[in-house]
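Risk mitigation, structural track. In case the binding assays with zinc ion fail to produce interpretable data, a predicted complex structure has been prepared as a fallback.
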Amino acid sequence: MVIEAKKEGYWNRVSVNKIFIEEANPIEPKVTVLIPMYEPLELTKCEKCGKIIAEPKELIRIQKRKFSVY
Ligand SMILES: [Zn+2]
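Fallback model:
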């Protein structure tokens, strides 16, 4: 799938796989929370300035209904 990811003020299209990361629940430690994250499939550079905005080892997470590089 393709999402819009923001870094340094610009939105760029990034090809990703959706995955879930387990995170401990601070209120109830016995319950783990699954956080949806996006794993970039390839090195993606900003369309405007050419800087790297996503790479396979760097996961992206949802923030406030939009996406940002994590
Ligand atoms: Zn840029």
